[in-house]
Write a structure and sequence with these properties.
single chain
Length: 214
Amino acid sequence: MDEEITIIDQNTRNEKIKNFFVKNKKKIIIIISILILILIGYFSIDEIRKRNKIKLANLYNYAVIDYNLNNKEKIIYQLTDLINKKDKTYSPLALYFIIDNNLISNQDDINDLFNVLIDKTKLEVEIKNLIIYKKALYNSDFVDENELIKILNPIINTESIWKSHSLYLLAEYFYSRNQKIKSKEFFEKILSLSNANIDIKQLAQKKLNRDFRE
């Protein structure tokens, strides 16, 4: 008797399941189709991204290898175009190559390229902070103290790993302008940081011991 009841219950469940699929056949097909399309779309986008990355890598490598004084304008065009692609890897590398080889002498043009990376490119936080620091370093010979501090504020107002580098840049900036009180303040701030770069911290300590003895 119990076995018969079990068989009946099982048959009833199977019938309910069958009826559910029959009644919702269209909905189930639509849902499965959507899931398949999502998977195809995901893998297609991923493949496109990989291909674009390879393409950008090739553009950068060809420009660097092909560079010489005779094709300077061509390389500038290729590298600035690469920066404007807003790629998190090759756009910063393109700008560094331009600066290291002094391909563009106009300060405003270089700052515009920095801003493309800082404001318009999706970067990890500390990579972005590194680029902000490099922008400040590039501008430190041209701008006044307010402008330099303004550039560095996004770093020095956080606990970034580049904070000690930024404070050291400001300390040296003021020291070079014989503003030793301000310079000393920034060197001392470095020593108070818990996450200061060890080498930067040692340089700051040496500077204080050597040049700020009372």
